[in-house]
Amino acid sequence: MKKKYVITVLSVLVIAISAILLINKSSYAGEIDLPNTCPETIRIVTEKENLSLIKTDYTTISLPKDINVKDSNENYLDKYAIQLIRNKNIQEIENMDLAQEEGGLGEKINLIPNFSKNKEENRYYTQIAFWWLIDKLMGLEDEYNYDFETKSQLPIESNENEKYDAEGNYKFANQVSALEKKTIKESPNGEKIEKFINFIDQTMASGQSLSDIEDNDQLGNLNPINTEEITYHVTNDYIETNLITPTAQDVYYIVFKEYEVKVSSPIIVVDENGNEKTKFNSLEGFKLRIPISEIKDGKINFKAEIIGKMRFDQWGMYSADRILESAPLTLETRQAVTPNAVLINCGTWMSEQFFHPLELNYDIAVGNLNIKVIDAESKEDLSNAEVVIYGQAGNIVYRYKTTGSTLNITLPVGEYTVKQIITPPNYQARVVEQKVTITENGETDAVLENVQLIEVPDTNKTAGILPIIGLIILIGGMLTITIMLKKMRYTKGR
After folding, report:
1. N or C: which end of the chain has fewer CB within 10 A?
2. What share of the chain has pLDDT > 90, as a percent?
3. Is 388 exposed, middle or buried (0-12, 13-18, 19+ CB in 10 A)?
4. What DSSP state is assigned to residue 286?
């Protein structure tokens, strides 16, 4: 694979995206936060704790948990900094003319998708994917290591110690060793990373680019959401959907970084923790919530517009001469994470809309379920029983602790199982669970009966008390006899 060809094709990807935004900005571009200017020099401070999210019994890939970046005035900059190049390999990349600010390595990172909702974890995976991307740009195959001086192929190492020379320096020309790539592929997030790497590889090999989108005057599309797969959670106050996570179609997944959910009252958008929120990372899901009090005529209309967005970052690359020497980045070289360059985010702007809006608009019918937890004999309502309603998929729809009155619950139409998972104190359940069918505008009853436990004397305690009682009686009898004998002797003496 020729380096010149590789660089050209990947550059087309970035240029095409920019062209699309410029050409169509009148139709979908909104307010843009212009990037900040990257400072001339930076100071690096790393935490001692490392992240080791990718590891097996034969190798581990560790990176600092956090990197803080300061400018020359000791002001903290964006924390989203990643280590760029391992050891002396920075010189090789500079010779390939990939490290230039315009159309260079800093821009390529924008093509890397989100790998994790957690910022620290995402930086970890982004760094590793970026190293692997550099290897692809250099035409290095995944199954081999490459000698730093001769660029000749070396076999995959058998353990992580073989990655280092006698002084403990990382010794290969490839940024990610063959053994590490094998480990990445086997890791939980490996499929996402490998998908991105393969996409770039296939795009470069085929000559395809995002310029086709520009020619067709199209925006990207988000995948339709299957409303039949949506489940629900219910409380006494509201009904809400389960987590809904939008995804992008085809090549657009690499530029789908964020999205916004637009709704109208009475619908509320919340995150996975139940907090109101309308803007999300592309890996996060959202829920739609409607108060019970707003349900009219036995139906709920869930309606939302999802706007996919593409984020553009201004990246600054800092090699040794732009990192302040008074506070160099120091890490153990045997961890092979000491960089000669650092990439930091100096500013971000977001396209107001890069994807066609995805409309979510559907109705669900609801009915009412009345749950009584009662004494089987007296028919009185019981307190302190815990009741759970399960949906057909086995998901928990409703959970509540009884307070001595009938539970009146509004539920989407369907089949449910009502189960008493905790019985009232001093009771045993006669009816543990009951299957019910909720119909539109219908009233369904579920009655869970409990039988009061009979209090049985503790024979062990009774057996222990009897000898004591017998002893007391014996002592009382002996005292009575003694007193009587004394009286008799007194009478005779007179």
Report:
1. C
2. 39
3. middle
4. B
